[in-house]
Amino acid sequence: MRSVEHDLLIEKAEQWLSYKVTLRGMCWATEVSIDGSNYIPDGIALACLQNRFCQYYTSGFYGEKIFVFDSKVSKSDYLNSKPAKGIIIGDLHWIIASRFLLKPEDITEPWGLLQKSNRGLTEIKKPTYTFLSESSSSEVYKVSHAILWAQHHVPRRERHRRIMEHRRKMEREIHWP
Fold first, then answer.
1. Cα–Cα distance between 70 and 82 in angstroms, integer?
2. Residue 9 domain-assigned?
3. Distance between CA atoms of 125 and 122, rounded to whole angstroms?
4. What domain range includes position 148?
5. Would residue 35 count as lying in a domain?
């Protein structure tokens, strides 16, 4: 379910991942449909991790990885979603949630858990690396094609404009004493 909180969590996930990738950058897209899968992740990226993060997340398997993010704003949203049912379309998967919404034991493997914190996101549970890139080059091609197509058709500027509109609307609705 899309909401302002949902969109802000996805924006924070993009920022969180951007600090962990190499200078080659990353391809990022939201709400991307992947061929052969009925699952549409909230955020997906194709990037190479910096050495220290590559060691931490993949035990030294270098190269481009597919990162999948799914934002959850309620417990029922998580329980009724595909991540709870074990859909795997990338190398590393995270659930992004508001603080204290989900516990690490609620999250099924191979998903990790990122929670909203004061300054951004905090990793509560590390995801399990699934080796998708090394085992299936056709999957990498499908995902990278979908990301690039989405980037071309939904510019970042438009996404940012929608988020700022939501923020302004919420600020107008808040009545200060």
1. 9
2. yes
3. 9
4. 4-169
5. yes
Q: Domain tally for the chain?
A: 1
Question: Residue written as tokens 């991790």?
Answer: 49
The 10 Å Cβ neighbour count of residue 169 is 10
Average pLDDT over residues 88-99: 87
Going from the C-alpha of 52 to that of each of 57, 61, 62, 85, 163, the distances in angstroms are 9, 11, 11, 31, 32
For 151, half-sphere exposure in the C-beta direction (CA atoms, 13 angstrom radius) is 13
**H helix runs in the chain, sequence order:** 4-18, 51-58, 75-79, 132-135, 137-153, 156-173
The pLDDT of 70-84, averaged and rounded, is 79
Query: Does the structure show a pLDDT above 70 at 139?
Result: no
Say which amino acid occupies 44.
I
The predicted structure's pLDDT at residue 126: 94
